[in-house]
Amino acid sequence: MRNFLDGVKSRARTVCPIEEAVQADTLCHLSDIATRLDRQLTFDPRAEKFVRDEEANRKLQLRPLRSPYRRVAVTGPCRLVDFGDHSPSTGTRNRGFHFLTG
User: Fold this and answer.
1) Measured between alpha carbons, how far is 77 from 47 in angstroms, rounded to an integer?
2) In this predicted structure, what is the pLDDT of residue 11?
3) Quick count: other Cβ atoms within 10 Å of Cβ 56?
4) CA–CA separation, 100 vs 74, rounded Å?
5) Is the separation of the CB atoms in 57 and 34 below 8 Å?
């Protein structure tokens, strides 16, 4: 994860290029759907849909997020900000990242 976040900040190439990571992640999701439905499926990578299987295609849709989380559209450049800090009260280090637009 650190390598990916550093790559986003510096625009340097990561250990695993994002294109390869997306392909690997997609394969895992498609395999999970086939396993849960307990049947063989045919996936069209160009259309990004299963062929003639609406039940399987519904599994590709995003679930609603729990409140207070929401999806936002990012239109334009953004930058990654590390807001990690040390909490003296608990003695733990908190790490977090935000993508800021503009």
Assistant:
1) 28
2) 84
3) 20
4) 9
5) no
Stretch 54-81: mean pLDDT: 79
Q: Which amino acid is at 85?
A: D
94-100 long-range contacts, CB within 8 A, separation 24+: 97/5, 99/74
Give the pLDDT confidence score for residue 7 in this predicted structure. 84
Q: Name residues whose C-beta falls within 8 Å of residue 87's C-beta, 6 or more positions apart in sequence.
A: 93, 94
The highest-confidence range among 34-38, 72-76, 82-86, 87-91, by mean pLDDT, is 34-38
- The encoded tokens of residue 84 equal 């990690």
Could you tell me the pTM of the whole model? 0.58
Q: Which structure tokens are listed for 17?
A: 């290029």
Cα–Cα nearest to 48, from 35, 34, 61:
61
The number of angstroms, rounded, from the C-alpha of 59 to the middle of its chain's C-alpha atoms is 16
Q: How far apart are CA 93 and CA 87, in angstroms?
A: 6
At residue 16, what is the residue type? C
